[in-house]
Amino acid sequence: xxxxxYNVVAGIIVVDDKxxxxxxxISKYEYTSKKWEFxxxxxxxxxxxxxxxxxxxxxxMDYDVRPIKRLAKIEHEYPDFSISLDAxxxxxxxxxxxxxxxxxxxxxxxxxxxxxxFAAADVDIINTIKKKRIEL
Length: 136
What we know:
This protein is α+β, with helices and mostly antiparallel strands. It has one domain (4-132): Nucleoside Triphosphate Pyrophosphohydrolase (Alpha-Beta Complex). Helix content is 19%, strand content 38%. The protein contains two helices and seven strands; from the N terminus they run E-E-E-E-H-E-E-E-H. The chain has helices at 49-61, 120-132; strands spanning 4-15, 18-23, 36-37, 40-42, 66-77, 81-91, 104-108. Strands 1, 2, 3, 4, 5, 6 and 7 form a seven-stranded mixed sheet that branches. The radius of gyration is 14 Å and the shape is globular. The termini are far apart.
């Protein structure tokens, strides 16, 4: 049986030189349960990645962001599914939002991200940003 594949988007949201990190709740997969991630979600068929990040963050967090530029496109295989993860640098006017679906959040400088236990695909994003020396 073929694995499910998802097209997803993640927002690397930067405010005052800090990046928003969200902690997932308990899930049916140990390898994503309680892991940290960059906020986002699934891209619907008729959407661009930019439209998806705007919609997802409004729905999940009541948060308005502005996608600025694509930082990375990651292909990642988890044991039970695969994803194409489109990561976008986003700006916001404040750090205030409603945490509806995650169990925790924090704002960290880029060099502090390694202190959290990120989901594997999000680690790929961090490594790509570091390797390409992308300015946030």
